[in-house]
């Protein structure tokens, strides 16, 4: 089990993650993205139910950078695409462990809701 080198905290100790934090880390699992691309993916994946404003996005990214869950990429994936001023972000191995731990936590909650017949084929 990986731990945060700065604090010694395990990935599980960082959860539950705030929704914006989970959404941003989830968007970075597939590869590097700049801020606008993160906002766009989150909005598309949630069918518009979750919209990250610039303040939420960049404030959360700063906290994720400080926590070692996200790193700023030194090089853009394709220099021919996009604005040169854009900053690209990538998830770190520790960030991946944290978002995985939180996804497993949510999976257990969903399973408990299914067992209580709150969701599934025959809801109560």
UniProtKB/TrEMBL annotation:
SUPFAM superfamilies hit by this protein: Winged helix' DNA-binding domain (SSF46785)
Top-level taxon in the UniProt lineage: Bacteria
All residue ranges annotated as the Transcription regulator PadR N-terminal domain in the record: 24-98
A Pfam family annotated for this UniProt entry: PadR
InterPro entries noted in UniProt: Metal_resp_DNA-bind_regulator, Tscrpt_reg_PadR_N, WH-like_DNA-bd_sf, WH_DNA-bd_sf
Protein name per the record: PadR family transcriptional regulator
């Amino acid at each position: 089990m990986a731990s945060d080198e700065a604090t010694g905290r395990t990935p599980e100790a960082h959860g539950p993650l705030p929704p914006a934090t989970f959404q941003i880390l989830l968007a970075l699992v597939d590869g590097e993205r700049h801020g606008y691309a993160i906002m766009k993916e989150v909005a598309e994946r949630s069918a518009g139910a979750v919209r990250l404003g610039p303040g939420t996005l960049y404030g959360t990214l700063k906290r994720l950078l400080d926590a070692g869950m996200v790193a700023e990429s030194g090089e853009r994936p394709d220099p021919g695409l996009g604005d040169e001023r854009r900053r690209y972000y990538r998830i770190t191995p520790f960030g991946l462990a944290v978002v995985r731990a939180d996804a497993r936590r949510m999976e257990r909650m969903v399973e408990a809701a299914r067992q209580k017949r709150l969701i599934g084929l025959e809801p109560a």
